[in-house]
Amino acid sequence: MNWWTYVQEVTNGAAQEKVAQKVGVTGPTVNRWQKSAPKPETVAAFARAYGRPVLEAFVAAGFLTPDEARADVTIARPDDLTNFELVEAIGRRLGVNVGVVGTRSQLAKLTRSHLGAVDNDHDELRAVANEDDTLEQISEDQQQEP
Fold first, then answer.
1. What's the average model confidence in pLDDT over 89-98?
2. Helix (H, G, I), strand (E, B) or coil at 84
3. pTM above 0.70?
């Protein structure tokens, strides 16, 4: 099934203007769907507007195969991560390559500088201590370090 066939089935052949209004796009945008699928965010908006699963719409649009849509998605909870994995995840969010941080004090200083830019009211920070994944409390004198 192609994207346009999917749209016709889900909307029961509704007029393009009506579909456009419901999805929050223009009529000409819906008209272009006859030739090609829209961007992923528009496909997701269409699915949500019509109460359909987003993965189903992604398959119809050709963004995923049916097998990919059935794949198990596992989202790790912070408690399930090792300390290093957690710091790596935080580093990705902050745009920091934690692989270049060699010591606990370097990591603590880097973490303080990033968190300090976000919120100067942090009294405590925690960082990865060493390879055995134990946590160390960073001393309260963090504000005194340059």
1. 72
2. helix
3. no
